[in-house]
Amino acid sequence: MSESDVVVTIGETEITASWADESSKTRRALADALPVEGRAARWGDELYFDVPVSVDLEPNARAEVEPGTIAYWPQGPALCLFWGPTPASTDAQPRAASPVNVVARLDHTAPLSDLPAGTGAMVRVVDN
Questions:
Q1: What is the pLDDT of residue 118?
Q2: Does the CA dihedral 96-42-112-87 come out positive or negative?
Q3: Which residues pair with 63 in a beta bridge?
Q4: Is the peptide bond before 77 cis (omega within 30 degrees of 0)?
Q5: 21: domain CATH number?
Q6: What are the φ and ψ backbone dihedral angles of 31, each rounded to 5 degrees?
Q7: Is the alpha carbon torsion for 93, 98, 101, 103 positive or negative?
Q8: Residue 72, C-beta contacts closer than 8 angstroms, at least 6 positions apart
Q9: pTM score of the predicted model
Q10: What is the spatial distance between Cα 89 and Cα 63, in angstroms, rounded to a whole number?
Q11: Count of domains in the chain?
Q12: Which pLDDT score is estimated for 4?
């Protein structure tokens, strides 16, 4: 598995991301499946799309994450990109619908904030 960064493409916009150390089993499974892409749905300030990965929740899975988090949601199974509050949030912090395995961090989130509310996007994640 490459320890290199990944590139997330949303529409015509590319955002680099760095692997996180939190969920190594999930990170390996996702890295082995790259490239992945799909039509993402928007849920508040989160985009998520189905991925061909099957991993259980890791011991450090959590629902509340930081802006810029890329996480795997086993119930989807889906890959989620968070940049602000979701309908599950109780404050400005992103919150998943249920616990997720954190796998990477977006280097910046400004392009996500420019997406029109309620719209989805085509998302592709590849090795850098």
A1: 62
A2: negative
A3: none
A4: yes
A5: 2.40.100.20
A6: -60, -40
A7: negative
A8: 23, 26, 30, 51, 53, 55, 78, 79, 80, 100, 101, 103
A9: 0.91
A10: 9
A11: 1
A12: 47
pLDDT computed for residue 3 by the predictor: 42
Q: Quick one: pLDDT at residue 112? A: 87
Which domain range does residue 84 map to? Answer: 6-116
Question: What is the rounded distance in angstroms from the CA atom of residue 116 to the CA atom of residue 101?
Answer: 27
* pLDDT of 120: 65
Is 122 a member of any domain?
no
Buried b (16+ CB within 10 A) or exposed e, 14-31: ebebebbebbeebbebbb
Within-domain flag for 31: yes
**Can you give the C-alpha Rg of the chain in angstroms?**
13
Query: Would you state the pLDDT for residue 72?
Result: 98
82: exposed, middle or buried (Cβ count in 10 Å: 0-12, 13-18, 19+): buried
Residue corresponding to tokens 């890959």: 79
Q: Is residue 123 part of a domain?
A: no
What distance in Å separates the CA atoms of residue 79 and residue 89, rounded to the nearest whole number?
18
Low pLDDT (below 70) residues in the chain: 1-4, 117-121, 128
Q: Which two tokens stand for residue 112?
A: 């996500």
- State residue 128's pLDDT score: 62
Find tokens 């998520």 and name the residue: 48
How open is the CA angle 90-93-99, to the nearest 5 degrees? 80
